[in-house]
Design a protein that fits this description.
Structural class: alpha+beta
CATH class of one domain: Alpha Beta
Largest sheet: 5 strands, antiparallel
CATH architecture of one domain: 2-Layer Sandwich
Shape: flat
Radius of gyration: 44 Å
Number of helices: 15
Length: 632
């Protein structure tokens, strides 16, 4: 029997048609949407960038004026100005004029309003003036400093008048005023540098009355009627917003421009940046053209790809069908007869249905083996994790022991090499005080000497305290536990602790009256550290809570809580590390001692803190379940 000739099935044409529809139609819709969205997004970004430029230059203008005001402020607080020594003042003013070319004129006025020094770059008259009734002088003497008074200096240069109060640095009392006229032409230079003509962008600075202070084209500021177009001024002066921007149609030329403005803080000036819409959105148009060209290229590529993929996929499917039939005819006796569509996919499905039954048993065996392998892998992972944890714990313990050994060696050096000199100093202070007491019986001792001796004694106590903390942390003595009634112990501890009057101590003890086995000396040191820390973080007023509470039948919790400022998360992660501290003075061993004491009592310590609300330390200790009776 001859084999029927092969023919190309209908799947090829179906696949090609579906591929083209599924690819090109969504591509066209999405492309159209993305092109318009990208254009709108880019235009919005350009507008925001221009507004950001205006905000940035507004900050630059503000910093420029503030820097020169600070120059006058620093000079006005010099003792040579406050002394009203005219020759010295002239020398200082000349020095300021030489250092800062922006100053056109500087005058020094005494407290009565009489001008004592007047130096300027273009002065033809040096006669001293009377400012006693001048509004600007009066405002400076009242407010301390004034920035204002825009004008056209000599009819050409935009300038600003600023004044600061001359203050005697010794008595901190006003001794007069320092007035200066400062040229603003440098702002035009900054604008020109930031917005050259090649960018086709104009930038200007105006005051609240429309006075043109600076312009990227410096020729504009020298015009007699220098100002921005009326339609732009109307928008800028009537707008209450701090910043803004958008498209503006100029009434004089009909040109559409992209404008942005920002208010200069503390001065009431406005920075305005203007660019032609055609220039501003050029990048958007270029992107649109490139996107359209790319979409056309992608469309052609999809057409070619659809044909190639359809051709490439259908031919292997035909070959796969023939191989699947041979594979299905192997060692299998019976397979169900199924009705399939009259195309290559139907024939392929029929073939793989035949193979699926033959592969079922093998698949089941493979899955069983895979499950067993996964189980073994999980068991191995658990063992590796357990060994890793054990190794890490051992490593951490070794590092801790090495660190404690190093601290112990250091503490012996500290105790010997520092405490002995401190004792010598203390004895010397005692000897000096004895001599002073003998002298005081005849001649009064200067109070500063007594004050400095007290400071030395305080610092010696502080140093001894630090040494005690280091030695206490480094030296580990044998634990001396004893059965203790926790509530009575806490009551005695809080009664003997010196609590300042601005702090309220609140006590609340467990009703179960728990009994613990602990070294009361070590535990007292830890709890005193926590209460002391809580009091120190509340310098004005607050509360310290001391509580005990049963968490379960075998554990009692001791809480030391304060209502201080709290601690951030990054600080909480480090507070129990030795030598870590947030205090200006301290060893950072207080909380390390707390953790050490809790660990030695087979307990643990936890801490929770909320910034602005307070911090709570919790010490968990095991409870003695059947304590012996306490002696009466």
């Amino acid at each position: 029997m001859t084999e029927a000739p092969k023919k190309r099935g209908r799947l090829f044409y179906k696949f090609l048609l579906i591929f083209l529809i599924v690819s090109l139609v969504p591509l066209g819709i999405v492309g159209y949407y993305l092109v318009n969205l990208s254009k709108a997004t880019l235009n919005t970004a350009i507008s925001r960038d221009q507004e950001a430029l205006a905000v940035g230059f507004a900050d630059t203008v503000s910093s420029y004026i503030i820097n020169f005001r600070n120059v006058l402020f620093d000079a006005a607080h010099l003792e040579d100005f406050a002394s009203m020594n005219t020759p010295r003042q002239q020398g200082l003013v000349n020095h300021i004029m030489q250092l800062h070319a922006a100053f056109l004129e500087i005058s020094v006025i005494d407290a009565s309003g009489q001008e004592t020094v007047r130096i300027g770059r273009f002065l033809h008259e040096t006669k001293m003036r009377d400012f006693s009734n001048d509004a600007l002088f009066t405002k400076v003497m009242r407010a301390g400093e004034v920035v204002g008074g825009l004008e056209k200096y000599m009819g050409s240069y935009p300038a600003i008048t600023m004044g600061v109060q001359v203050v005697n640095p010794v008595t901190n009392q006003p001794a007069g005023a320092l007035l200066a006229k400062m040229s603003l032409t440098a702002l035009s230079s900054l604008l020109k540098t930031g917005f050259p003509e090649s960018t086709q962008t104009q930038a200007a600075v105006i005051d609240s009355n429309g006075f043109l202070i600076a312009h990227s084209n410096s020729k504009e500021i020298y015009k007699p009627d220098a100002k921005l177009p009326d339609d732009v001024l109307r928008i800028l002066l009537q707008n209450d917003a701090k910043t803004g921007g958008g498209e503006i149609i100029l009434e004089t030329t009909g040109e559409k421009v992209l404008g942005a403005f920002a208010e200069v803080s503390d001065l009431g000036w406005v920075v305005y940046i203007q660019r032609s819409v055609a220039v501003a959105y050029q990048a958007s148009e270029d992107m649109l053209n490139r996107t359209l060209r790319m979409m056309a290229i992608v469309g052609l590529f999809v057409l070619f790809l659809g044909y190639a993929v359809s051709l490439v996929i259908t031919q292997p499917i035909q070959s796969l069908r023939e191989a699947a039939i041979k594979l299905g005819e192997g060692d299998f006796d019976y397979l169900p007869d199924m009705s399939m569509p009259n195309d290559e996919i139907g024939e392929l499905a029929h073939t793989f249905m035949q193979m699926s039954e033959s592969l079922r048993v093998k698949t089941a065996e493979t899955m069983s083996a895979k499950t067993e392998l996964e189980r073994l892998n999980r068991s191995l992972e658990h063992r590796v994790e357990a060994r890793t944890r054990e190794l890490k714990n051992a490593q951490d313990e070794l590092i801790k022991k090495e660190r404690l050994a190093a601290i112990g060696q250091m503490s012996s050096v500290v105790g010997h090499e520092i405490r002995n000199p401190l004792a010598v100093i203390n004895n010397s202070i005692y000897f000096i005080k004895t001599k002073l007491n003998a002298v005081a019986a005849v001649t009064p001792v200067e109070p500063k000497i007594t004050k400095h001796i007290a400071i030395i004694e305080s610092e010696i106590r502080q140093a001894n305290g630090i040494i005690d903390e280091i030695l206490g942390f480094a030296r580990t003595r044998e634990l001396n536990p004893k059965i203790t009634n926790l509530n009575s112990y806490l009551e005695d501890l809080t009664m003997s602790f010196p609590v300042p009057p601005h702090v309220e101590l609140v006590k609340s003890f467990a009703s179960e009256n728990p009994t613990v086995n602990m070294d009361t000396d070590e535990m007292s040191q830890a709890l005193r550290n926590l209460i002391k820390n809580g009091i120190e973080v509340m310098p004005e007023r607050g509360k310290v809570f001391v509580r005990s509470e049963m968490t379960d039948a075998n554990t009692v919790r001791i809480d030391i809580e304060d209502t201080g400022p709290g601690m951030p998360k990054e600080t909480l992660e480090k507070i129990f590390a030795p030598f870590f501290t947030t205090k200006a003075r301290g060893t950072g061993l207080g909380l390390a001692v707390v953790k050490k004491v809790a660990d030695r009592h087979k307990g643990k310590v936890e801490v929770t803190s909320v910034v602005g609300q307070g911090t709570c330390f919790r010490i968990f200790l095991p409870v003695v379940t059947n304590p012996p009776p306490f002696p009466r």
